Amino acid sequence: MPDIPDILVQITLKINSMKITKLMRCVLYVLFASFSLVGCDQLGSFSIDSPADLLSRIDSIANSKPNTGDTTYVTINNALVGNEDNSSGWWTAFSDYFAIPSNKLLHLEFINYTSGANNWNNWNLAVTNNIADRSSSSYKEYFVLRSDAYGWGNSDFNLKMITQNYPDTDGDGDIWNDFRKTMQGARVSIDIDHSATGNAYVTVTTVGTNGTTLVETYQQPVSATDAINAFLVCDGSHFAMKKAYLIPSKVTTVVDATPVSISVSGTPTFVELGNKDYWGSATATVTFSDGSSKVVDSKDISFNVVPDMTTVGKKTVIVAYSKTKQGAYTQAVSTFYSLDVTLSVTALEVTTAPTITKYYFYNSDPIIFNTTGLVVTATYSDGSKAVIPNSTLTFGKIAAAAGSQSADISYVGASKTVTTTCPLTLVKGASQVGNTDFSSAWWTAFSSDYNVASGSSKTITMYCYSDNVSNWHSPCTILRKADKTEYGVVRMDNFGWGTGYGTATATNDWNFSTFTSNISGSKVVIKVTNNGNNTADVLYTVTYANGETHTQQYTGITVDSSDLNYALVTEESYLVIVQ
User: Fold this and answer.
1) Is 321 exposed, middle or buried (0-12, 13-18, 19+ CB in 10 A)?
2) Domain 72-248 maps to which CATH number in 3.30.1340, 3.40.1130, 1.20.120, 2.60.120?
3) Residues 474-486 as b or e (16 or more Cβ within 10 Å = b)
4) In b/e form, how buried is each residue of 493-514, taking b as 16+ CB within 10 angstroms?
5) Which of 12, 187, 299, 519 is the most exposed place for a label (fewest CB within 10 A)?
6) Separation of alpha carbons 460 and 123, rounded Å
7) CA dist 402 to 114, 327, 369, 406, 426, Å?
8) Helix ranges, 19-171 (H)
9) What is the SS3 assignment for 2-42?
10) What are phi and psi of 21, to 5 degrees?
11) Is the pTM above the cut of 0.70?
12) CA distance readout (Å), 82 to 113, 121, 458
C-alpha cells in the first residue's frame, strides 16, 4: 500500500480548485475515517503524522486562486513557451490559445525572459477571432500588441490608443534601455476584457525584479457576441506561464467621448464650372477625446460655408461634425479646405514623364500604371494652360506586351471626357512572384528554391512593383533546407525571424521616411552567401526608380551549410525576376 501522506498530497492536489480550506480539511477527515473502516493491516493505528507543511500547502494552493465566486480556471498545457535560450524567432513559438467568451475577462500571469537585444524581444499578444487554426483562411487577427507599446491589426486598429507609463529610471533621456532591463525576468499580468459592448480592453501590468512597475493599455472593437481568442507569441524571448483564469467582464457600458478635431482628405483641388459637387469622394476623419479616431459618414458632416459654384475662382469650404463617439449631438469641431472653380478642360498633355517609364513583366495580366512624378498640363476653354492635379485624373492599365506601350490618361469633365496617353516601354522577364494587381496575401506567393552550395553565393536580380502602402510590401528571403525546414526569414525593411535569426546582425542605410513610397519600380538584387561555417549572409542592394541606391544586410544567420536553399516571398506586391 502507498504511503498515506503521499496519497493525501495527491488527493489534495486533485481537489485544489476548492476555495475553502475548512471544507478541504473535512474531506481529509472523512478520508482518514474511511481508511480505518477498510481494515488494511498495513495501516494499523493511524494518527495525523503527515508532513508538517501539508495544510500550509493546501492553504497555499487555495489562496493562490482568487475567491470571487465567478472564477473559471483555465488549464495551461504549454507552461514553458519558447526556447529557454531566447532563440525562438518571430511567429515560431506560441502559448496555448485562450478563448474569451463575450462578457468575460481573461487574466494571464507569466514570467517574461528576453534576449535583451531589442525592445520587441519580449511578450507579444495576439487577439483574434474564434478560429484556432492559424493556417485557416477563416483565421483573422483583430490586433497584435507588443510589450514596447507598438502593434498592428485590422482596420479598427489605432496605434494612438496604446498608452504606457514607461519611466526613464536612470535619467539619461532614454526610456528603452531601462525598459529592456526591467523586462528581464519580470512578472507580467495581462487582462483582456471582452466586453459585451463589442470592445476588447487590454491592461498589462509588469513588475520587474528591479521593483519597477510598467503599465500598458489598449482597446479596440471586436465581436460583441462571438468568443475571441488570445495567445502569446515569442520573438527572441520565452515565457514561464503561471496562471490563467476567466472572470466576469468589468466593462458593462462604454464611456462616451467628444470630438476634438476633424481632418479631411481627398477633397477636389478644382472643379469645372457647371459641376456643383465640391465634396466628391473626399473623406473626413474625426479624433475623439479618448484618443481614438474614425472616418465618419458623409451624411453626418455639415458644411457651414457652401461655396458659390457659379463663378470661376478660388473657393473655401468649411466642414463641421457635431456628434460624440456614441452618436449624441455635442459641440461641433470644424476645418476647411480650398478648391478652384475653373473653365472647362479642352485638352491634356503629359509635360513631365513619370519616374517609371520602363516596366518589366512576365504574365499577361494588365499592369497598374505608377503615376509618381507624372505631370499633366490641361488646356482650358479660354486657351489658358495649367498643371492639372493627378488626383482629378483617371488612369488606364498598361497592356502586358513587350515593346512600346502606353497608359491612357483621362479627365471627366462636366460636359465631356478629355484623354491623352503616356508612352512607356515593356521588357519581359524570366519569371514572376505575386499577382500583378497587388492582391497576393502574405505567405501565398513564392519563387522556386535556389540552392547555395557551401562556400558559395547565389544572386537573383528582380524588379519589385508594390502598392507602396507598407514597408513589408516588398521581397522577403526565406532561408531553408531542401525539405522546407526554415532557418529564418529576412525582409527588405530590416526585420526578420526564425530559429537561425537569433544570431544575425542586421544593418542598413535606409531613410524609412521615404522607404515605402519608393518601393515600386525598384531594382532589387538579393545575394545569399553560404559561408561554409554554418552561417549565411543576405545582402539586398536596392536601386529606386529615381536612381537612389540603398543596402540591407544580414550577417551570421545560423544555417546548416551542407543544406542551404533560399526562396522569395512577397506580399501586396509582385516581383519580376530578370536573372
Assistant:
1) buried
2) 2.60.120
3) bbbbbbbeeeeeb
4) bbbbbbbbbbebebebebeeee
5) 299
6) 36
7) 53, 55, 16, 12, 5
8) 21-38, 54-63
9) CCHHHHHHHHHHHCCCCCCHHHHHHHHHHHHHHHHHHCCCC
10) -60, -35
11) no
12) 10, 12, 32
Higher pLDDT, 276 or 374: 374
Contact 123, 95 (CB under 8 A): no
Q: End-to-end CA distance of the chain, in Å?
A: 76
Bridge-based pairing state of the strands 329-342 and 270-272: parallel
Contact 81, 44 (CB under 8 A): no
Return the C-alpha cell found at 112: 517574461
DSSP lists the bridge partners of residue 329 as 323
**Residue type for position 475:** P
Give me the residue spans of the domains in the chain.
Answer: 4-63, 72-248, 259-336, 345-428, 431-577
Cα distances from 238 to residues 78, 112, 185, in angstroms, run: 12, 6, 10
State the DSSP string of 298-367. Answer: GGG-EEEE---TTS-EEEEEEEEEEE-TTS-EEEEEEEEEEEEEEPPEEEEEEEE--S--EEEE-SSSPB
| pLDDT surpassing 50 at residue 432 | yes
C-alpha cell at 190: 495581462
Work out the average pLDDT over 121-143.
94
CA–CA distance, 476 with 490 (Å, rounded to integer): 6
> How confident is the model at residue 120, as a pLDDT?
93
The pLDDT value given to residue 304 = 85
Note the CATH number of domain 345-428: 2.60.40
